[in-house]
Amino acid sequence: MKNVVKAASFIILILSVLSCGLAGKLLDKGLDKGLNTQRASSLWDDVPRMDGLNDSPTEDLPVTIKLVLHTFVNVVLNSDKDQKKHVSTDWIFYNYKGNETDINNFYTPEKMKSSGNWSLPEDMKTPCMDGKDKGIPGDVCLYQKTENGKQQGLIIIALPTKEKDTPVFVYFLRAETEADPAK
Length: 183
Prior knowledge:
Layout: H1 2-34, E1 36-39, E2 53-54, H2 63-77, E3 87-96, H3 102-106, H4 109-116, E4 128-130, E5 139-147, E6 150-160, E7 168-178
Parallel strand pairs: 1-3
Antiparallel strand pairs: 2-3, 3-7, 4-5, 5-6, 6-7
Helix pairs in contact: 1-2
């Protein structure tokens, strides 16, 4: 009887682990399907490049960053009750040998305004915040703009890693949709 209980417990443990992996894969595929997401070949012309950003790793975005992007699109770009018809998202990320708080000092409202006419999202007093308060272990900066009939949002996330050679990954996530003509 003890062996049957041990075997059943082991099978339940294996199924639990497999189902978590399957749930993660399904969530990842669902997020990819919900957004028209593609990797940018370089940082966009209207976003200044901070010194020390090294070549972008070739990996795909982690699921947690995809969740942040999906939430940002829904909260900022789809803030009205009607979902936008088409949202495209681009992303790129870099290795950075500095500190995650460096983005706060570099990506200032003044620099972003002069580089690409970026502004703060409505009701925000500062663009950058400590992500720890929001469940993200790094710093996050948010910007938006409306130009040429397009509403655009930009998220810059600096996340610390456990690697000595690359202490921080800096993610740039950009979303775009048709601007609401009523606004």
